[in-house]
Amino acid sequence: MTARHLVAALVMALLFCPPLKAQDNPLVQRGIPAEATAENAVTARDRAHANARRIAFQRMAEALGGGIATPSDAQLERMVAALIVENERTSSTRYSGQLTVQFSPGQVASLTGRSFSGSGAASGGGSAPGSMGLNIPMAAQSYVEATTRFNSFQEWLELRRRLRASNIVASVDLVAISPDAARMRLGLRQQAGEAAASLGAVGVSVSQEGNRWQVGLGGG
Question: Are residues 27 and 124 in the same domain?
Fold first, then answer.
């Protein structure tokens, strides 16, 4: 494989991430634009994701009939149960992409006073927020910065696949990548210590140094 082909394959792999499936569910908003410029790539990504949450909420509110005020950024972050990258492009100061934003039915019900059936339709009341029928993945409970080194592009793809397929990892945000290494921000559905031990069962090795991880392919 030539260097040009390798770069093209890297770009296509980084842009590909399948969205969650939904059937006319206002709590799942797909194809949300996420764009921002900042002093560095990480800040640009965080701002872009915050912008996307606001846009997703506004679209959801319209689907629910309108008349719902947009919450603060902090409230919106708590309302999001899952944020999935459909595609993304990053530079040293710019982030651009599209996201799927999945809202927590309980949080939305608390804000709007409406309940939601398993199909995602809203009603005027009756069900308690805790009885929502939607299958929403647990949002990230903690975050860690992780680095990895790999001998081939296929090794990197397999590591990323195992991380994304794991029930332990809520999100994999790429911060930087080179031909033999990558740096990521992992959103975890468990506290870091518990997650590190659990990832071994899905074939991901973890070495910890404080709040930083070194990850790689393990057995499994």
Answer: yes
The answer to whether residues 117 and 26 touch, using CB atoms and an 8 Å cutoff, is: no
What is the pLDDT at residue 187? Answer: 84
Residues 83 and 158 in one domain: no
* Listed residues 131, 150, 172: the one ending a domain: 131
pLDDT: which is higher, 137 or 107: 107
User: Cα(136)–Cα(28) distance, rounded to whole angstroms?
Assistant: 10
pLDDT for 20: 39
Q: What is the pLDDT of residue 58?
A: 92
Question: Do 115 and 42 sit in the same domain of this protein?
Answer: yes
